[in-house]
Specification:
Order of helices and strands: EEHEEHH
Distance between the termini: 29 Å
Radius of gyration: 21 Å
Number of strands: 4
Largest sheet: 4 strands, antiparallel
Shape: flat
Oligomer: single chain
Strand content: 15-25%
Strand order of the largest sheet: 2-1-3-4
Number of helices: 3
Structural class: alpha+beta
Length: about 150
C-alpha cells in the first residue's frame, strides 16, 4: 500500500507537513473530514501527496518522488476548470514552442499550432507515443549505464 503525506495550511503558520499515512487516500480523506479541514477546523486547506513513479511501467523505481493526489476540501468545479484549462494551455504552448524549435526555423509557432489543430487527437497521440518511445530508450540507456557502474 502506498504512503501519503498530508500538508495542511493555516493563516498563522502557512503550509506544514501534518502526518504520514499508510494505506493510500482513504485514511487521509477520513482524517481530513474529522479535522474539519476547510469547514471551520484548525486548517483552511490540505493537500495529499502520494508516491510518483514515472517509470513504473518499466519496473524502474529509481525515479521516485511525490505528486499531488488530493486537495481538501475538494476544489470547486469552477476553480478546477480554470486551473486545468490553464494547465492545458501551458502544455499546448510548450508543445508548440518545442516543435517549432525542433523544426530549426522551418516552421513558425503559428504554423505548428495550425498543424496541431488540423491533426487533431490522432496527431497528438502520435507525438505522445513518440515521446514515450524516446523516454523509454533513454531510460533503458540510463539503467544500463548504472548497471555498468556509471553514474547516471
Amino acid at each position: 500500500m502506498a504512503d501519503a503525506l498530508v500538508k495542511v495550511w493555516s493563516a498563522d503558520a502557512g503550509w506544514k507537513s501534518l502526518a504520514w499515512f499508510t494505506g493510500g487516500r482513504t485514511p487521509v480523506s477520513v482524517t481530513a473530514a474529522l479535522l474539519r479541514i476547510g469547514t471551520g477546523g484548525p486548517y483552511a486547506f490540505a493537500e495529499t501527496w502520494g508516491p510518483r513513479y514515472p517509470d513504473a511501467w518499466a519496473h524502474d523505481w529509481t525515479q521516485e518522488g511525490r505528486s499531488l493526489t488530493d486537495r481538501h476540501p475538494d476544489e470547486p468545479y469552477a476553480e478546477s476548470s480554470v486551473r486545468l484549462n490553464a494547465q492545458r494551455r501551458a502544455e499546448e504552448d510548450w508543445l508548440v514552442a518545442a516543435l517549432a524549435e525542433r523544426s530549426r526555423g522551418v516552421l513558425t509557432a503559428e504554423q505548428v499550432a495550425e498543424r496541431l489543430q488540423a491533426g487533431g487527437q490522432r496527431y497528438r497521440d502520435f507525438l505522445t507515443i513518440g515521446s514515450a518511445a524516446i523516454a523509454r530508450a533513454l531510460n533503458g540507456a540510463r539503467r544500463d549505464e548504472r548497471a555498468q557502474g556509471g553514474c547516471g
